[in-house]
Amino acid sequence: MTLDFFLKNYKLEELDINKIFIKNNELRLVVKYNVYLELIANGYRPEMNMDIDKTFVFNCSYKNHTFKTNNLEIIDYSNDILTIKIEDVILKVSGNVNVE
User: How far apart are CA 14 and CA 77, in angstroms?
Assistant: First the structure.
């Protein structure tokens, strides 16, 4: 998905981030969020309410690093470049966001 689509549909500040790390020039956010599904099948309406873990992968040029805190701050988003601050590190991420 594009970075613009990601930012419009997911609020980084509201995600329950379990882990943030950089590996091979990719910023990885491991997040947990709740999913509620209503299913309809032949008059039976089962429901599913569950927590899932997903990893959002962003392109960034920075050395491999695991952050001690899971708090991040959005500084700016312009020209398809997102600038964020994690601990004392300021990162610029761009391109598409992959989900694992």
Answer: 17
